[in-house]
């Protein structure tokens, strides 16, 4: 066969996979936005069936043959085909190197582990979860030997979520970040300039929150012709297909921040996916470049726009209109300070911008220790608590508020957490660069003119999809390697202004 | 292999097909309940892909081998396996007898024809649609020669929707029905006792209509743990899986009947599917017995319960509560008469209970003539108009309100219409029998106690799924063959009471 015949068949196969993925993603979205509970069991089986079919297509003999044929004349291939083949090969190898039997055992184990973790968390008893965690770690260690690694074994896990990232890079970044943040957190904690946040917990009607969520999405440039907003318990954005990128949010009548900032956060994820080059549709390149790059977009919208005082100059009146009693005696400055409150806390998902990276660094250091065989599972709760005391000055009173708080390890997701902190760094570095092209950034935010901001992000990040690796995107967009100083500067400036001036 | 090994593999294959069907049905439901428009094109492709995969599984070599193995020792098989094998064989033969190339051409043609039909309807110009209709008919005539037929060629098409039904049976039923209804329609038309329906078109808030729709569903015994209600343009009920049977409805603020009776109608469909024997889940028997039996359940709920004066004795106050101004001066009797208004009209989907069967009979007679080669496509509009004049006393002023009103033929669905009228007959015959077991039917309806009614229908109809053929269900439930007199009696009684007393 001619090379272009292989190429065509390869893209046809990717397209077929994308159709299956559309079905699976929709079935997940539906489960989380109101599917009736009696259908959940069959649904799980249907998702399982189609996911297995996707796995089989990605690791099929034919996929291998097509990839072999493409790699034989790799240099003759168009750029996009090269990239698509690289990703398909990565998928093929990740999936096919694990013996099928072991992979199935692992799927069963992690599904069971999630249930056990729920119980353990409810009872706040790590010892219930420990035997499962131990096995999950053992499987992952074995997978690393199948996949191989360079440098540190943990690099292989990092690469699953953040292609190209390594322990060496992260150690340096996180060490600088700690050095800067820990003293700043201490100063902020000691500041007498504390926001009054009592008004936050007054009642704000769900209907009005929904209207505002829809309004902010529209204002920020989310395209409703290619998406919709629904309610869920744990909010997310999800791509059903290139023209259908959905946002979900949660309404807490006694804390509007959940919906407002949650929606703006997911809006950032969704705008990313709505602006990937359409030419990539139906290929494996039509996706975010990495977890971290994705998070950089959601955090950009949530923090640099949504928590920006200039944003609220224009939009705070909208909040007042929606819930007049609640905000009657709250001045704009008080509102801005309250929604930017910073204080050391135990739960990652509730942490503020400033302390959040420390929650991630703690998990990173623990995961690294696990995969360097420096710590046993039994020692983990003590290590966890010790690090919280050391970095945040508080000690979890129990496992539920400590080591059991996140589901990730129960799902076998080791190497995932660092992406959250990388997202912060990417976002800050992009923002710094954006200011060169759009020095009037804050004015645009104040005027509610987000078009140019979106276009800049699209040009530098969104449009590429998975054509580029995370660190390439950052380098090409900003002209330099990933640099943590922009995040540090941002946090120093913002929190000094808010708390220490 | 042993027989039970084949049997197991056969049921595994059916289960796999059911998982694919879940995905396809959900993708359809989603398209019709709010999927963003930009995603529609990819969605169509994904549905196409998975539907093709289902087709391939149903007509696979392996399916054939399994069926051959089962049929070799058919008498040794358990009853459900026999039935499942019969349905799978019917599917296999229907699908595999048509050459693949021809089938694909036909799919493309009918997809194109639907678009052309829309244009033609908009322009009210049958001549635009005629060339497509001609081809669709030719394909169906050829399919009939592939499938074979007994008696009349049209029997083969009827059998697709109503297994076992034939022209001989329908000719007799419809002839009796016409003989009874046509004079009754004339009498009702001539009656001076006309309902005042002006209040119907006053504004009734959508929100209140939705609340009432949810309320009626719950009252009637629809299980929300296994379903949900959504809004759509052309309402339907749909089964995603055995524990997930959804209802949709449409809200017209100037005509509450659309939502109220529409919801009750779909409720009947949904209660049917929610009560099929759970043991059949994941097999090809977990479905309605036929289009007509399905329609009998929706019509039972809509007409015998929803349009029953006793129902409104209890529930009319709920309507008044929801829209007090609208009903302030409308007495219960006036309300009941108005929602049972009967008059000859042009559009099938807007027709009342009494005139509806005539709309169906017209289509049946025309389809039969088409497949007996007694009428050309060019002659159809004239034939249509002539029959409307003859049976209903009115002539369509144009094609849009005449022969172009329904989408069915554009989809290639010939033989489908009779099921609507059969549903009426089934429903009336079942109701007549039910009165022997539940003589207090009207009292139960008045009290809002629907449990026993539902249980009766479940025992006689729902639970069987596709284990029994339509005419078997009727015979076993009522002790006699399908008999049109129960529908005739019902219509005579009801409309004499309303209009002629």
UniProtKB/TrEMBL annotation, chains A, B:
Secreted listed as a keyword: no
PROSITE patterns according to UniProt: PEPTIDASE_M32
Gene3D superfamilies named in the record: 1.10.1370.30
Reactions catalysed according to its record: Release of a C-terminal amino acid with broad specificity, except for -Pro
EC code: 3.4.17.19
GO MF assignments: carboxypeptidase activity
Keyword Metal-binding applies: yes
Keywords on record: Carboxypeptidase, Hydrolase, Metal-binding, Metalloprotease, Protease
Matches recorded under Pfam families: Peptidase_M32
Coiled-coil intervals, chain numbering: none
InterPro entries for the chain: Peptidase_M32_Taq (IPR001333)
Family: Belongs to the peptidase M32 family.
Function of the molecule: Broad specificity carboxypetidase that releases amino acids sequentially from the C-terminus, including neutral, aromatic, polar and basic residues.
The name this protein goes by in its record: Metal-dependent carboxypeptidase
